[in-house]
Every structure is written in C-alpha cells, then in structure tokens.
Amino acid sequence: MGTQTMTLAHMRAAGWPRWPGLFVLLACLGGLFTGCPAHAQELPRRAPDLDRLTQELFAEIQSDQVPYEDLYETLLQYYQTPVSLNAASREELRALLLLSETQITNLLKHREATGPLLSLYELQAVPGWDLRTIYRVLPFVTVQADDPNRARGPLWQRIKQEENNTLFVRYERVLQQRRGYAAADTFQGRPTQRYLGSPDKLLVRYRVSHAHDFSLGFAAEKDAGEAYAWQPRQGQYGPDFLSAHFFLQERGRLKALALGDYQLQFGQGLLLSSGLAVGKGAETITTLRRSSVGVRPYSALLENTFFRGAAATYQLAPRWEATVFVSRKRVDANLQQRTDSLAQYDEFGSSLQYTGFHRTAAELDDRHALQESVAGGNLGYLSRDGNLALGFTVVGTHYGTPLLRRAEPYNHFEFNGQNNLALGAHYSYVWRNLLLFGETGRTTGGGLGTVNGLLASLGPRLDAAVLLRHYDVDFHTLYGNALSENSRNINESGLYLGLKIRPVARWEVSAYFDQFWFPWLRYRVGAPSHGDDALLRLAFTPNKTSLLYAQYRVRLKPRDLSSSLGRPVPLPGQQLRHSLLVYYDTQPTTRLGLRTRLQASRLRDDDNLPWRGGYALSQDATVQVARRVQLAARYAVFDSDDYDTRQYLFEQDVLYAVSIPVLYGQGTRAYAIAQVTFNKHLTLWLRYADTRYRHQTTVGTGLEEIKGNARSEVKLQVRYKL
After folding, report:
1. Is 407 left (phi over 0), alpha (psi -120 to 50) or beta?
2. Residue 105: what are its φ and ψ, rounded to 5°?
3. Where in the sequence of the chain do the CATH 2.40.160.10 domains occur?
4. How far apart are CA 637 and CA 140, in angstroms?
5. Which residues contact 151 (CB under 8 A, 6 or more apart)?
6. In whole angstroms, what is the distance from residue 343 CA to residue 644 CA?
7. Which residue has the higher pLDDT, 240 or 186?
8. Could you tell me which residues come within 8 angstroms of residue 634 by beta carbon, excluding any fewer than 6 positions away?
9. Residue 77, SS3 per DSSP
10. Cα 322 from chain centroid?
C-alpha cells in the first residue's frame, strides 16, 4: 500500500497529467510491478468500530450525562453518507472530531496543489496523516465526487432509487419481574405509583438519505413501562415518542431546508448546540472546539435535544449565509397552581423534566405540559480562503406557562418567567499552525457568557490547546452546551489546558488540566466553590489492529459534606477521586478480536473520612464464525463500596443502540451478541445480557426493584435495507 501511494505522489510531483483515466491506469500498472493488486486503487470501506472509537474519544468518563447516542448517531450517518475529501470544507472536516487542525490544513493544501484525490491510498502522501489517523477516518470519508443532484432525476425518483434506505425494528425486555409491574392491588392504596404499560421496549425507525441531497425518516418508540394510547388532545398517537424529518440540501442558493425535527449547531455551542458535543475526554485536542455544521436532520431517540418546526439556510452572497428557524413543541414540566391571591402567576412550571419517561400517572401529568416556542437565526461569513469565519446568532424562547424555580438559595439567579432572548457572536480564524475560536453571548437580564480557545500545532509531534470560559450566574442559554463542568453553561469560570505528544512512532501521550470556579451556590454545594480535573493518558499502537493505553485521572470537586462528621448542617467540602483505566484491543487473526479493560477508582469526601473504592475487569471476544455470522461476548467482574464508587462500562450492542450500564456492589456481568446477515437486505441481531449480584436479595430500587440477585435483558433487532 505504501509503495503504491508513494508512486502516486511521485508521479504528481513529477508533473504527470491529472487526467483521471490515464492516471488510474498508470497507477494500476505500477501496482502490478510493485506486487500490489491491480484493484487496490479502491480501498474498501469497513464498517466503523464504534465501540473502539468511543473508547478513544471518551475512555474513562464516569458519567451518565454524556450524549453517547448522539455520538453513535452522528458517526453512523457519516458512515452511511461519507464526507467527500475532495469537496468537504474545513468546517465539515472538523465535524468528524477525528482530525487535528494541522491535518485538515495539510489536506486542503494538498488538494489545492495536486488536484482532487484519486484514491484513499493517497492520504499517506498528506503530511501529518499517519496510519492511525487514516484508519480512524476511513469508514467516514470517500474521494468519489457526488454526481449533481439534478442529473439523478426528480426527488421522488432519487428517493426511490437510493441504496441508503433502511428500516429498523427493535425489541427489548428485562426478563425478571420488577416491582413497578406488579398488580395494582399490591401497592397498598397507591396504585397510581405503578407502571401503566408493559415491560416491553419497542422501536421502529426508517431513514433514506443521500449526502448533500436529502434525508427523510421517522422514528416511533415506546419505553418499558409506557402505555400505547390514542389521545390526540394529549399529543399521543400510539407510541409515546414520535419523530419525523424531511431535509433538503444544495438546491442552488438554498443550502439547507429542514421540516419536522432538526438540530442546530453554531459557533462553540454557547447559544445553539442541540446536537453532538463531546467536551472533556481522552481526546484532549480535537474534540475541544465545536463545529458550525448549521442545520442537521434529527433521527436520534433523545426526547429533549431537538427542535420541531422548520429551518432554512440561504446563501445571500458568495461569502455570506443566513439561517432562520422556528420551533414549537410541548416539553415535559412540573406544573403547579398558586393559591395565594397576591402571587405573580396563577400557574407556573417549577422545573423542566428531561428523562423522557412517561410510565406512571405522575410522569404522565408532566408529559408535554409546557408549550415551548423558539425562533431565531444565524448570519455567517466565510472568507475566500476559508480561514476566517464569523457569525452572529439570535435566539428567542417563549414558554406558554411561566417558569418559577423553587425558592432555594442556589436557584436565586435561575431563569424565571416566560421569555428569554439570547444574542451572540462567534469567530474562528486559522493562522499558520494556530486556530483561534470563540463565542460570546448575552441573555435577558444582562447575563454574559464567553468561551475562547486556541489550538496550536507546535511541531509535527506536539499539539496544545487552551480554552477560557466564563458564564455569569444569570446567563441563561436554554439550548447551549459549550464546554463546562456544570451540566449547563451557567455560574462557572474555568481554564482548560490540553497537550498531545507523539514522541516516537506508534506512541502518544495526552494530558489535560482543567480548573474551574463556581461564583454562586450550586445544588448540593452551599457556598461558592472551586475544583480541579486532570488526566494523563499513554497510548501505544503496535499495528493497525491493536491498541494499548493506560490512563490516570484525578478530580477534586466541591460537594456538601455529610452532617455525620459532627457538624450541625452539611458544609461545603472537596470530594477527591482517583481513577485508573487500562485497555487493550487486539486482533490476533482476521476472524478473532479481543479486548481487555480494567478500571478502578478511589474517593473520599474529607480528610477525616476513609477511602472508598471500586473496580471492574472485563474481557471481550469477537469471532467471525462464518461470512454471514458474527458472535461477540463479554465476561466482567465488579466490586464497589457504594453508589458513589460505581463503574460505567462501555458495551457492544446492536447497531444504533448504546449500552453503558452502571455497576455497583459486587457481582458479575456477561453478555453475548449474535449478528446474522441473511442477504444484502436482511440482518438480524440478538443480544442477551445478565448481571449477577453477590450478598444481595434484591436488585434495584423503587419501581425498578427485582426480588432476587439477578437482572437479565434480551434485545432483538432486525434491519431491512429496501
């Protein structure tokens, strides 16, 4: 492969003609004399290994708040509609999350100097594109130029003939009886607290799409415990969650048009980031900055990270684009009535609900209780050379019923009322080996928020990143998700420093240090506070199919300490957590893949309290039994002292599904997956998982409680390509 690639590069450098037919013929003839097969000009695209890629991007992130489903969804869409390396802009390449700014710049320079890439093998001739980078991006890119959409016939005909046309049906169930599904007469006069639906989880999803042309799809989902119901007045038409979208691109000056459900991503996500946002993780450089991908169709299953209505992007002039959007939907909220005649509002929402579950009578009372209307736009400028990007954003939000938070000290500066207006400006500038980026916004009430960063390539083997952020205590951005330690961009200042070193071939050292301050009180922190977060990772890639890394992370985070220390009330203190992760992924044969993962953590809440800890050890194996049959399995053991020392374990799952169980206590977890491809149209997945606990007579709490020491799950998925 390397010989042929150098042949391509040398031929171009020597001034060979760029006629594709002649060039491909000469490259193939060169392959005959160098021992490469003649058909090697076309590098086959393999399906992405999303589990391994997630390990590389996130690794040890002990949280259930990371939108992994959005990550999987985004990467799978890139696989189904790959990015054309010959036509992609700098922003589109950034959105892959896998390329450094220097690698992107070098590719654009190579493309400008030598013309379009004729083969993916040619990527080896691009400076800074090592084998690891190439193999990471291969599933998501192509060098084939898209045919003009007009030449493919009318839209209905293109949809009919599109190969990327797929229907998914999925079924899931926990096999043991859970307390929430017991008969109503067992709830001691409180039958409304039980689940109203069956324990089955069902999903139907369909999508047909073509890159830079169109996307059409729908999804219907019923979670376990939710009931089917036909109640148009309550906005339910059968399954609890319904979603649909229609999306067009590149229709002359109309760059994008979205109808139905969609997402928006502009600037650094300070005001609009309803799509994927990675943030801090094992990848310390490339995932730090956001990408202004604009309007995207929504096809995931998260029930609160999208807009519903219409959005359009129009090219005003060669360097200017404008996006306008409007959204109107009902969101989950807890509504309450005021009995005080002097109260400002007769009815108000005390909190927004984000779980997406509507299983009990109480959860159904909150379902779609609040009308939300959002409208706004973005005006963007891109310089001729693509190095300077500027944007201006406005977002207005109106709630049909006012929000009024509980009268707690930490809620003093929270958003209250019906209307919020947010204005912001963002920029991105590339100068040599530096990328400067940032965004600043102001919201109703005068609250300011700003995030500014620098990515620098200090040499072929050294990358660095710096990011400063500050969000006022009264900065209210309801669809923002810029980098922060809090779950929202409010009441925080911070400094992030990132580093990545490649001292020798196949070795990589990554590190970050993040210091943050909270000027006002927070939930479970009764005073202004501060904390630190640091990570160090050493990775070794012995070959293209193996990866070994060790990672250490330490976090010092504020938290109210228990009154068990002899204090009359909880007082703010510091929780110190140490985490260690060792991971090895190898493929000893073409049919066998092995993965070993060991992770452990220790923490304590105060110098006077004992350490608590937990660990998990897992072994995975994947076997290609036959050309159409693949099996995967895992066996894991875990031990943790309590819920605070719980362990999150990434697991393989059926396509499009995400599984990251939280494990605490003592026990074992095992699962097995069978994937059978019957023909080019039909594929089936079957997954069985089982968790066994020691020294326990029940599993779970509340309505999820199971009598016994085991929890077993079964999942069946069918994919049919039309």
Report:
1. beta
2. -60, -45
3. 587-722
4. 35
5. none
6. 40
7. 240
8. 618, 619, 620, 621, 651, 652, 669, 670, 671
9. helix
10. 26
Fold of 587-722: Porin (2.40.160)
Q: Where are the extended beta strands (E) located within 432-564?
A: 434-443, 448-459, 462-471, 492-501, 507-518, 529-540, 547-560
- What are the DSSP calls for 345-368, one per residue? -SEEEEEE--S----SHHHHHHTT
pLDDT, tens digit, 9 for 90 and up, residues 582-594: 999 999 998 999 9
Supply 176's token pair.
Answer: 């043991």
In this prediction, residue 43 carries a pLDDT of 58
For 545, phi then psi, to 5°, come to: -110, 5
Name the token pair of 671: 């699962």
Query: Could you give the C-alpha distances from 623 to 281, 620, 720, in angstroms and in order?
Result: 30, 10, 23
**CA-to-CA distance for 641 and 663, rounded, in angstroms?**
11
> Is the separation of the CB atoms in 346 and 384 below 8 Å?
no
Residue 589: strand pairing partners: none
User: Which amino acid is present at 472?
Assistant: D
51/651 Cα distance (integer angstroms): 7
Q: Which H or E run includes 50?
A: helix 50-57
Token pair for 384 = 């001729």
Q: What CA–CA distances, in Å, run from 297 to 207, 208, 258, 351, 393? A: 11, 12, 7, 28, 20
Q: State mean pLDDT over 466-478.
A: 95
For the whole prediction, is pTM greater than 0.90? no
41 token code pair: 């000009």
For residue 592, the cross-strand partners are 623
Looking up tokens 């392959």 gives: 31
Q: Residue 24 pLDDT more than 60?
A: no
pLDDT digits (tens, 9 = 90+) for 213-234: 899 999 999 999 999 988 887 7
Whole-angstrom Cα Rg for the chain: 26
φ/ψ (deg, to 5) at 615: -150, 165
pLDDT(94) > 90:
no
Query: What's the DSSP call for residue 49?
Result: -
Give per-residue burial for 410-442: e unless 16+ CB within 10 Å, then b: bbebbbbbeebebbbbbbbebeeeebebbbbbb
- State mean pLDDT over 691-718: 95
Distance (Å, rounded) from C-alpha 645 to C-alpha 609?
A: 15
- Give the residue from 661, 679, 681 showing the smallest Cα distance to 671: 661
The amino acid occupying position 396 is: G
Q: How sure is the predictor about 656, in pLDDT bands with cuts at 50, 70 and 90?
A: confident
- Mean pLDDT score, 159-178: 92
- Two structure tokens written together for 320: 């200017």
Count CB atoms within 10 A of the CB of residue 196: 19
Q: Pick the closest to residue 90 from 72, 109, 74 (CA basis).
A: 109
Q: Which two tokens stand for residue 622?
A: 């994947």
CA distance 248 to 677: 32
Residue 446 φ/ψ, nearest 5 degrees: 95, 0
Cβ atoms < 10 Å from Cβ of 648: 18
Per the document, the length of the chain is: 722
User: pLDDT for 308-366, tens place per residue?
Assistant: 999 999 999 999 999 999 999 999 999 888 666 555 666 788 888 888 899 999 999 99
- How far apart are alpha carbons 405 and 690 in whole angstroms? 41
Helix, strand, coil: what percent of the chain each, to 5?
Answer: 20, 45, 35
Angle between helices 2-13 and 20-33 (to 10 degrees): 130
Both tokens of residue 440? 């600043």
Q: What tokens were used for 15?
A: 């001034």
Higher pLDDT among residues 500 and 156, named by residue = 500
Q: Kindly report the average pLDDT of the chain as a whole number.
A: 85
